Automatic annotation (TrEMBL):
Ranges in a coiled coil: 6-55
Residue spans crossing the bilayer: 81-103, 109-131, 143-166, 172-190
Name the record gives this protein: Uncharacterized protein
Organism per entry: Methanobacterium formicicum
Keywords tagged on the record: Coiled coil, Membrane, Transmembrane, Transmembrane helix
Keyword Transmembrane attached: yes
Amino acid sequence: MAEDEGNELEKSVDELNQQRIDLEKEINDLNLLKNEKLKSINDELEIKIEWMDKERIKAIKERDNLLRKVRHSNEKSWKNALKMVGILGFLDLVLIPAIIILLSIPLQWIFVSLGLVTFLGMMLIVNYMSGTSPFNTGEIRKAITVSLITVYLAFVPLLTMGVVGFPGAQTIVTNFTWLIAVVIVLYFATRPLEEYIKNMNSKK
């Protein structure tokens, strides 16, 4: 009887030892799987970090290239705008007066020519600098203001020096002066009004 109990105990101990060995093996397998999974995750993270670093460097290079292009484009735009202003000045100051004198056209027509050429030239220059395709109200307003001031600055000195003279010239100068004053006031007054209207519309 005692021998049977001893055998059973020994058998139970062997089973427990076997279970312990199996558990240890399972734990080792789980540890191996965990380590492999952690290593795989770590490798994936390193790959992602490396990819993000490359993308960051690429984005920085693209940003620098874009800034360089914008800077060069702005410089080119200003150079072209200065050329256009020079051409416009040549037309107003040299070519138009020369044509009027050579063709013996009445000198009063110089003001009409100056106004039209300056208006169209300023429209092109302002539109070119703004980079917009259609003409907007701001560009038209600038062109009208500059053309009127140009005609005024040409008309008054010529009239004062006696180069141009006709009946009622003084009245025209007075009215023209008032017109220029109104145009300048409206030019600077409408801009804050436009900004106010835009802000009100954006809040809605």
